[in-house]
Amino acid sequence: MQPKMTKRQFLQSIGAVSGVATMYRSMNALGMASPTTAGTTQFQLTPASGYGTRVVILGAGVSGLVAAYELSKAGFDCTVLEATGRAGGRNLTARSGDVIREEDSRQWVDFDAEDHLYVNLGPARLPYHHTAILGYCREFGVDLEVFTNDNRAAFFHNQDRFDGPVVARQVMTDTRGYIAELLAKAVNRNALDSELTGEDKEMILDLLRSYGDLDPDDLYVGTSRGGHLGPHVHAGLAPGEVNDPLDLSQLLRSDFWQYKLHFSQFLDQNPTLLQPVGGMDAIVAAFEERVESLIAYRCIVTSIRKTSDGVRIAYRRRRGRRSVLEADFAICTIPAPVLRDIRNNFSPETQTAIESIEFSKAVKIGFQAQRRFWEEDHAIYGGISWTDQDITQIWYPAYGYHREKGIILGAYIWDPDPGLRYSEMAPSERLQAAIAEGELIHPGYATELESGVSRAWPKVRFQRGGWPESYEPPEQLREPDGRIYFAGDQLSALPGWQEGAALAAQAAVTAIHERVMMT
Amino acid sequence: MQPKMTKRQFLQSIGAVSGVATMYRSMNALGMASPTTAGTTQFQLTPASGYGTRVVILGAGVSGLVAAYELSKAGFDCTVLEATGRAGGRNLTARSGDVIREEDSRQWVDFDAEDHLYVNLGPARLPYHHTAILGYCREFGVDLEVFTNDNRAAFFHNQDRFDGPVVARQVMTDTRGYIAELLAKAVNRNALDSELTGEDKEMILDLLRSYGDLDPDDLYVGTSRGGHLGPHVHAGLAPGEVNDPLDLSQLLRSDFWQYKLHFSQFLDQNPTLLQPVGGMDAIVAAFEERVESLIAYRCIVTSIRKTSDGVRIAYRRRRGRRSVLEADFAICTIPAPVLRDIRNNFSPETQTAIESIEFSKAVKIGFQAQRRFWEEDHAIYGGISWTDQDITQIWYPAYGYHREKGIILGAYIWDPDPGLRYSEMAPSERLQAAIAEGELIHPGYATELESGVSRAWPKVRFQRGGWPESYEPPEQLREPDGRIYFAGDQLSALPGWQEGAALAAQAAVTAIHERVMMT
Questions:
Q1: What is the predicted pLDDT for the residue at B82?
Q2: Of the candidates B129, B165, B53, which has an alpha carbon nearest to the alpha carbon of residue B516?
Q3: CA atoms within 13 A on the CB side of B47
Q4: A93-153+272-279+360-459 is classed in which CATH architecture?
Q5: 385-404 in B: which are within 8 Å (CB) of A?
Q6: Which of A102, A271, A460, B147 shows the smallest number of beta carbons within 10 Å?
Q7: Residue A220's Cα: distance from chain center in Å?
Q8: What is the per-residue pLDDT across B22-79, written as a single tens digit (0 to 9) for each?
Q9: Range A54-88+282-357+469-518 has CATH code 3.50.50.60
Q10: How far, in whole angstroms, is CA B458 from its chain's centroid?
Q11: Does residue A200 belong to the interface with chain B, where contact is any CB pair within 8 Å?
Q12: Which residues of chain A have a CB within 8 Å of the CB of B402?
């Protein structure tokens, strides 16, 4: 019998391997044995460096909140002017009783009042390498859980193929299988002898057999990876027949592989993805808790002017009262489609840059279902079904598993044509249209749904779109125009991501901080 | 402005699409437009059908618990004889203060007493299609969360390749890229013209360009999918250079692709995988709550005998007291390596079948780390790093993200050679060996770890192994020997999975039920 091992004894007992540890730390210091790393980072301006400097921040979205938090920590005197009655901007979670306002409509969210009955109508994912925003989650104690993109039980649906939706598991397994079979044939026919020398040739054949689960003749004839015929997907009590492979010609003629099949290969969609427990706006709430006193809500900026030694911001408060705020610096996070219509004395180059930024026509629709039919009937726990219809995607909630009801995302549209078309519909029409399309994925859909809410970002007064269409922000806006700095995800190569908003804010406050330190 | 839409109005408003709904339900009834489904199932014997029938169940693991629960619900008079002081069998979660017993050792678990500081030393995953066990989770209200296998931030490590661990994201992206490039070359060289006709040829080239993210010359030269050079993995404020592809020849000479690269393609490892919040033994606790009064703990079965009209089980209680229990039927879930040494009057065929079942040499080791260095330094949230060393895997916890400390699984061994070798070590030696190996993945590992616990299943008195090595259970044991029925995952094609244990139990109770109903 072993004696009880205390922590101290444990540490002593591993003394035997400390030589190894030391050796590897030395190797690491020499740049050997050092894997690529990407940890959460802690951003920090010099404490107390900002005393006496006034900064006005335009917009209390994620970028504005980050700027306010970092500047106020360093002693800057900050004010955030926010046009609406809430912080967060596009970070928006809808729950029971919320009112969703657009330019010509209001929707009351008629979900039941339960903690798992919400839908993120703006950003909904935190990729693992978005270390700035995850760093704030860590610092603020925002609880995280996994968000699922890639669920092999979900469906691929192309209206002209396969007579209905097909299970992702089969699409993915069979595509791999056919690719492996075809390449193995080419290798066996010596078609790649100029690329693959003797030993490599045998090795790649071995790799392909394993990659696609080929049969002894290097043919793809189906595999247990695609699931079994009969009552279970799995093998059950006795291994049964596996599903026949999907037809290659149909697979090639579907639109699955144009990007949907590779979606989780994309860097921003790679597992692990995370989400705050209880809704994405937990991040907003955590920032607000720290900077709420700095935010002036319902202040609509009407003019942005550089002055000889600072900035002058005019804005309209409730009941139309007009005010002016002067400061040493401004950080403008207002989305370009809104900003371009605000009076200003920016340089012509700045104005051109702002006008060059186009925002996407993103629409999201959430439905409350009386029953989690996707779990009960299809064993779908989170993830995405894809369709070539306008709704593009159906998202199943990666929270509240096995509870009585659930909220699904019944549409996530970003292509301009359906996006604008859905935006122009009245909210009730959007729901009807999305339900009609969802019926082709889930027959009986209409009878399962109890209420719905939509968000057409192009119709949102102080947003006018989902996110910048370009991954290359205009260089011009990286530099200040006088003492006006620009931020928001529109200043990053991560459009639509809170990480881009946070990094742009950190860059702006760093630049202001450096300028202040130099004077 | 839209009026408030109540649930009733919502239902009326979708009347417009009810024609579509009806049409699709009709199509579904005709077998059209019907995707493969796999929902949670509710198992149920005829209520009150068992009154007056006594069943003794041997073993209170998952299979025994399912049998006891289902039989008692149907009115059978059940007793479960359990050799140890706890239910659950191989479903074992270790927490602060637990004692982990093996044949010649005892370990006290010296983790801190916090709800996220635990490790599942037995089963740890619930695949989405394991609908029997998930059905019980649903019925009992066991909270579930996502378990992550496939984390692209984790590492692949082969001691002879790449001078250290490489990030999974790059291994997977580059392997896809090279496969796509090679197949595109073969197609362009007309090497597959007998398989791919004109239109298919163009389509598969398009597919491959997207599959591997090939350049305009159909070459794989790296992609943003593999991450960027510089301080971030992601694109940051301006899109930068992407990582160079890993060398194909090294990839081919690594052991990554032998199965590790495809791990999450396997049916049982496919996303979505789930786990109970707070530890896998939440499932045991939920069953125990319902059948605890039926379980006789610390009763070691010493003899199993068929009689002319039932069964007679001899067992030894605490302090060596001997007892005998007679019943109409027995369900024996005792693992074959243990069962084969218990006196019995089974038929020779039954005995041969029991002796044919070999169990794996599985070992798991958990460590408490003072700091979640995998999250802080590498942005690894859950998932698995792979190595060709004995420890085989390091699992990062898919729970307690961003908390102060964490429990990692520092080894999950199942190959017989290292499995037996680790089993024969004293617990403190196992920890030392696993730490030394972990240092090659995480330099500085030894200094981050505070305490550890191991479970060598071959050394566990009433288990003697991890799970049956064969996926084809012996046919002989599917039939009863007299009135003795066999169960456990060893009776399923899902060895080592709780689903197999549950299905085998359901099959046994169904068979007993049918036999009772026929008399």
A1: 98
A2: B53
A3: 0
A4: Alpha-Beta Complex (3.90)
A5: 398, 401-402
A6: A102
A7: 36
A8: 333 333 333 333 334 455 558 999 998 999 999 999 999 999 999 999 999 999 999 9
A9: yes
A10: 18
A11: yes
A12: 134, 137-138, 141, 144
